[in-house]
Amino acid sequence: MTLSVAVSGASGYAGGEILRLLADHPDVEIRTVTAHSSAGQRLLAHQPHLRSLAHLELQPTTPEVLAGHDIVFLALPHGQSAQYTDALADTALVIDAGADHRLTSAEDWAAFYGGAHAEPWAYGVPELPTAGGKQRDNLRGARRIAAPGCNASTVALSLAPGVAAGVIDPGDIVSVLAVGPSGAGKAAKTNLLASEILGTANPYAVGGTHRHIPEIRQALAAAGAPGDGIRISFTPVLVPMARGILATSTAPIVGDATDAEIRAAWVEAYADEPFVELLPEGVFPRVADVLGANVASIGVAVDRAANRVTVVAAVDNLVKGTAGAAVQSMNIALGLAETTALPLNGVAP
Amino acid sequence: MTLSVAVSGASGYAGGEILRLLADHPDVEIRTVTAHSSAGQRLLAHQPHLRSLAHLELQPTTPEVLAGHDIVFLALPHGQSAQYTDALADTALVIDAGADHRLTSAEDWAAFYGGAHAEPWAYGVPELPTAGGKQRDNLRGARRIAAPGCNASTVALSLAPGVAAGVIDPGDIVSVLAVGPSGAGKAAKTNLLASEILGTANPYAVGGTHRHIPEIRQALAAAGAPGDGIRISFTPVLVPMARGILATSTAPIVGDATDAEIRAAWVEAYADEPFVELLPEGVFPRVADVLGANVASIGVAVDRAANRVTVVAAVDNLVKGTAGAAVQSMNIALGLAETTALPLNGVAP
Amino acid sequence: MTLSVAVSGASGYAGGEILRLLADHPDVEIRTVTAHSSAGQRLLAHQPHLRSLAHLELQPTTPEVLAGHDIVFLALPHGQSAQYTDALADTALVIDAGADHRLTSAEDWAAFYGGAHAEPWAYGVPELPTAGGKQRDNLRGARRIAAPGCNASTVALSLAPGVAAGVIDPGDIVSVLAVGPSGAGKAAKTNLLASEILGTANPYAVGGTHRHIPEIRQALAAAGAPGDGIRISFTPVLVPMARGILATSTAPIVGDATDAEIRAAWVEAYADEPFVELLPEGVFPRVADVLGANVASIGVAVDRAANRVTVVAAVDNLVKGTAGAAVQSMNIALGLAETTALPLNGVAP
Amino acid sequence: MTLSVAVSGASGYAGGEILRLLADHPDVEIRTVTAHSSAGQRLLAHQPHLRSLAHLELQPTTPEVLAGHDIVFLALPHGQSAQYTDALADTALVIDAGADHRLTSAEDWAAFYGGAHAEPWAYGVPELPTAGGKQRDNLRGARRIAAPGCNASTVALSLAPGVAAGVIDPGDIVSVLAVGPSGAGKAAKTNLLASEILGTANPYAVGGTHRHIPEIRQALAAAGAPGDGIRISFTPVLVPMARGILATSTAPIVGDATDAEIRAAWVEAYADEPFVELLPEGVFPRVADVLGANVASIGVAVDRAANRVTVVAAVDNLVKGTAGAAVQSMNIALGLAETTALPLNGVAP
């Protein structure tokens, strides 16, 4: 059976990537694509690389247009999701690529986003360990899914195995991320101009203000960390690559954990995961290795001199960081093969 | 009086940048430039941007050619400096842009470089606090100077004020650096090809193996940290910008240090420094802000949620990180005005 | 039936891209991958993005290893193909991604390459018009195929329709191409270092020396241009993008050709082509639109003030320019569906 | 005597570069910097690399603020200059970095810009040959100067010597330019976002619509081409470098001009020019060679197979293309040494 799909925000980067993946999905039909100011134009005018969808025209993003599909993807700025909730009450599956339904804590929402706190939905990072299993368990049969923040899921995937196994201390995490500008979306802003980003590296949200911090805390708490004992120093740095995240995360080694015990935590957590790649000892990932692929590639080092475990993770922010996570979660929710339409190979160089 | 200068390694990036700066220096005459395989060719064939030096031809890098100048700059791979020592015994000032004379600890040298440990020279980062003052004191009248490692001096400048003031704990430092490939030199290596670096971020020396780690420890020890109590998790990441370092360094806040006390440490350390720029609270530097300039630009954040101070520093690895540090140290050693021929303004965008 | 495949040069960029495409091809099994200095290592060590081929190990590139497969791809530097000819005599299909078998003229070979001139093979650009039809006709059932030069096929596809229709004059063509460094391969060369390519645009082979010039002439002659009446000013410019070609080609308008007649030449030539995209009037392609896709995207402008037709074409040099052309030609030669395993959609941004 | 200067558009790229150069000019004092929406803020907030001007605050761009200086630079979008004309009637020297005063032909203005055609001013490309000498002659003592369009001056400098000497035919010029996005200014536009420019090459104004075309025609006519016999096919391509133009221009060889005659045209035109660098035969410039420098670097090839001369020129669009041209013209107009405050050396890599 073919399921009908609507994708909002289809003229943007996240929406475009959802479409790129769904275009090859045998079980869905992309029936509707929507946008705001570009409604009425051909999709191809905004996504000229999506030739197989050349027949589609952008509709306005309204509750009426989105209603009536089996699956709806919301790729909208945060805060916009709520206005479509009622109209989509009967929709079998709604996946929000925005932040609205990620946080369980109203307090965190108020502190980092502000405005009304919406209901938390199943968190779309299937591979993350939880107390009783994995986040995948919450996605099976789910009708409402929150795709993750790209930086948050990258850091959470980096550290959760060690936290769950009790070999690293979540109380003093430091994460620094090299990120590409596509994660900031397609809206015209001076600080995202090519002239401002070519040839330079630009930090932002320094000092603990980035909105993905509470999302990381929440994911690590779900993995077994004491909720009030998680501290994260988090600094993202914009670098001149269109896509990608290279996250370097470190946490103190707990007590007398051996190298073997430390490595085993990651090996066991991801042994059967199709889309989390744990690299051999001494090998670390590059963004180039995951571009276009639905893969988080992870290398783990034990640095005894620093008494820290250093985890380097590479993710394509638009695929495993957003659209791939959304489609993977969709597959799980609907009982389809989890890997359907999700590329394992990247495009390099 | 005009001083005669020889620059070895003149066909490379560090050598070229030393020449770019010296070309505008009123007190020196660049008499000799040397190289290995390119000896006999015009300098302009290798440094086409250095038009004011079009008259120069590359000589072979031999003790005989380098001898007989007032000042000699060695911009050579580490381990090559020793063979010129005897021939330069009478040279008034020798500045080594390589690593040979940076480390005081033979043990560190053996562990991170290997081979014979050479005599440590005055360390060319004038602004760094020391027990009794600043590294500048050691440079006045010095006849032998070790220009710093670019990553090392960037991190040392970031953290030394807080260490010296006792407001941050050097026992659990984490530094992650976005660095451009010019720091790795001009030798042809597959991993430095444009195709391997464009569109990606690539970590290297992960897990505590980078050679600049002992240099940072040494600089922080000089600034007052207990020598055996310094621990650094250090991860460099190559990103697609030709030049520049954007270093994010964090360290735990000590005890009950207040925000004002913390900020005061950096304000006082750098108040009178012409080439270290402490940005206003809430402002952080970009690599673009320092390209071409002999400036370390630093922003300091106090992150109470993480209980860490986060320092972001931007440096042009070829200027303040190498050639500018060398020329600034030369100015100090010779009693010239310290700022001579050193650009304060950058070239942006 | 599954056909066995060997790919030589598998550690390089062209070989890697052939593998990326074949990995998704339902009719072939990649049985053997070969390399020179890297033989004995895992493929993944050189192509970490090709996870689905993680089981493969690089064999040495020898006649013995390559023999015994149904299909062999040679992704080797020019001049190396001949040594495998005898061993592959019984191989059903050999596709050379190098230049050895592209040129029909021994004189051109001598002038632009030198060394022994090998037998010309069927030219792997199916869409190019020829006197009686298209190059596709020569590929059907072919046992030996020369994949095209990436720059050559891009320019030939840009201009052949106008030449074949007699609306542009091949006697005064000017082509200038912005090209990414991956076309120059993975061998370590100083001029291909990231530091030499980031932030700059570098011309090469200026003044009519590029080896793809005779290949363009040959393709246009096949499309109907008088062989001795073709003149091409051809200038490639390296720019800081890993992949891609953006070719701007112009030729004089012939006589009183109308705008409609001119446009009709391209419309008719490419109306039924799955992998040549003729953009609407006033729209021109970007490299971003074709990255990862087996598509030549073409925009045509009639510039009456200059009395020239300007054609802008975007091609991913590694896909439609090389590996995609090879696989598309393979599909045709074997009677498979021409579009099998060839992406129509690109990966953007 | 120190001359007082006001720079409008000081928060933008052209204004910033004028300031970078003037900051080192011994004969001027930058008294006033102005902007529109940013008035009231510190200059440093918008130009953090201009540390030596840290004391300046942006004033509003009004006639009153700009009046009363010896020299005024207008770095404003075209069409805005006229409103300041009256207020600046007594200003000794006004230099417009915008397009308003470049074109002598009202017809061209109407066709390519539209709106009221303003009085043409002395054209700020001193090195360009004219019937009786050089454009420099018109700049001596000038009170009103139009700084050139960056693309226009690059192409004009490339071809004017050959046109003036009668060795190339201006009737069939083809120019294709790789250009960096800073030439398009700092206004936030979607097509200038880093995500749209990284990893790609994007053509624009294809087919003869670019506004610099009539400016090139005018400059070549001044160099001696028959005004109605100049035809230019002109295509700019945005590539991922912040600054720079790499222009490839070709024109047919006239009659039986010999290689020596052709080369002599450029040699003679630029023999004594400090800021136009004619490279040796067989050598061609890269953008990297001119970054930060007030230099047009030019290589000339005679392509007999194509019957064309190919000229490759590299220019930093913000320096020799705009701000450097403006300051150089200022120096000439005021009778100062022409090279004052203008860098000959670039910043590379």
TrEMBL record, chains A, B, C, D:
Originating gene: argC
Protein family per UniProt: Belongs to the NAGSA dehydrogenase family. Type 1 subfamily.
Reactions performed catalytically: N-acetyl-L-glutamate 5-semialdehyde + phosphate + NADP(+) = N-acetyl-L-glutamyl 5-phosphate + NADPH + H(+)
GO molecular function: N-acetyl-gamma-glutamyl-phosphate reductase activity; NAD binding; NADP+ binding
Lineage, opening ranks: Bacteria, Bacillati, Actinomycetota, Actinomycetes, Micrococcales
InterPro entries according to UniProt: AGPR, AGPR_dimerisation_dom, AGPR_type-1, NAD(P)-bd_dom_sf, Semialdehyde_DH_NAD-bd
SMART domains: Semialdhyde_dh
Biological source species: Microbacterium testaceum
Entry's EC annotation: 1.2.1.38
Name of the featured protein: N-acetyl-gamma-glutamyl-phosphate reductase
